[in-house]
Amino acid sequence: MSNETKDFYNYQFPSSFSLYDMMNLPTSAPSSYGNNGFDLSSYSFTDCLQSSPGAYDSLLQKTFGLSPSSSEVFNSSIDQESKRDVSNDVTGETPTRVSAPSSSSEADHPGEDSGKSQIRKRELAEDGGEENQNSKKVGKTKKNEEKKQREPRVSFMTKSEVDHLEDGYRWRKYGQKAVKNSPYPRSYYRCTTQKCNVKKRVERSFQDPTVVITTYEGQHNHPIPTNLRGNSAAAAMYSDFMTPRSFTHDMFRTAAYTSGGSVEGALDYGYGQSGYGSVNANPNSSHQNYHQGGEYELLKEILPSIFFKQEH
DNA sequence: CGCCTTTGACCCGCGC
DNA sequence: GCGCGGGTCAAAGGCG
């Protein structure tokens, strides 16, 4: 449990504080809210959704285009690199909720190596190509590099029969490891788009084999590939979660637009105009669009429990 | 042929 | 120092 999270939960929002206000919180907010204005790093999406099941189902269907019974995202969490004492963050904040130790440990692991190898690789490429053949032998590199800034992480628990959930992006599997204390392996995927180093790990909960735990790390720096094979709205939602500062913003915007028509519409809006997870979208248009989308009431229904959790 | 998965080896951090 | 576990690499092979 991080102090930032506590502070966030304990923060007294003005009574008139709205979704719109929150989405436009100043970047240079007090440190107690975390580096990004406020810290959603341990927030569990389910917290709010469970408090309003109807809204949950509605959002699921409208955003994911899924019926809750098919493939159900019923837990998620956001991890951010700034906090390392997150051992209880995923489940600690919500001890009675859908808990999965694997998820917890998953989100907890510092991921020290993430990106390190890539950096090492780059260094090798620069320092001497001939070393490529012995790349595996090259151990000590200037890992003294400034402490690797870890990418924000988002983990989802999804009820699904398939391990690798379609999310609209293209992934290449680059590894698979057996997970300790679990009969199910963990798979490692990397976004195939050039210069996009987003990764995701997929594993099946050993406690509930019907649950797939997907952990995204990093942020896509590109739109969802046009030749979508899956549910683009789901993709938009997944990717939006990866931008903690804006996840509510874009997520609900996506929800609103998905409800209004095609998923392409949601895509176009979410990625074509405002950029990927941009928090600086035109506030006026955004604000208005929440209403236009017709889901504003739904959002209002959901949101308070998200951000006013433990509010007194 | 390009893209993807598989898989054993390797690297690294951490705890003992 | 050593072993363990997590994460990554990259060669080899499969597939459309």
From TrEMBL:
GO terms for cellular component: nucleus. InterPro entries: TF_WRKY_IIc, WRKY_dom, WRKY_dom_sf, WRKY_plant. The keyword Coiled coil does not apply. Residues 70-79, 88-105 have a biased composition (Polar residues). Its main location: nucleus. Pfam families: WRKY. It is found in: Nucleus. This is WRKY transcription factor. It comes from Brassica napus. The lineage of its organism: Eukaryota, Viridiplantae, Streptophyta, Embryophyta, Tracheophyta.
